[in-house]
Amino acid sequence: MLKVNSKFYALRSLPFILIVGWLVLAANTSIEMESKNVNEEIQHSNVFGEALISCCFEPMTGYFRDGYCRTDGRDYGVHTVCAVMTEGFLDFTKSRGNDLSTPRPEYNFPGLKEGDQWCLCAIRWYEAYKEGYAPLVRLEATHAKTLEIVPIEALEEMAIKSK
Prior knowledge:
Elements: H1 6-39, E1 79-84, H2 87-95, E2 117-121, H3 122-131, H4 152-157
Antiparallel strand pairs: 1-2
């Protein structure tokens, strides 16, 4: 049987232990920093720089399902455009692989119909706008982050006009 010098083995393993410890520390620091970035409070204002108003509570919309088109770092789709659904848009987005009209009970999603208001992904809304299928938008309920993707002129062109 081979005799192992335990002191030698411990010293030989020390660099490995230090490296693993450093990697764990670095990973935890990275996770904490990422969490802080994701959970940072984002100023929730609309495209006019005013307080964001609700988009819709029935059906309950928003990335956070709180009725508002709010966003944060976890919302990769940037669900910030408050829009009134049309059959044309629903058909358009379905043709792009995002079926918003079919109910999905497993996700507590009722399916949308013409006239429903919903927080849309800014990129999809802008794509529909360029193709002629964009639904009307409620600017007071559309998050300011939308302006990083969609020109204000496009939004104003498709804005619901107040009476």
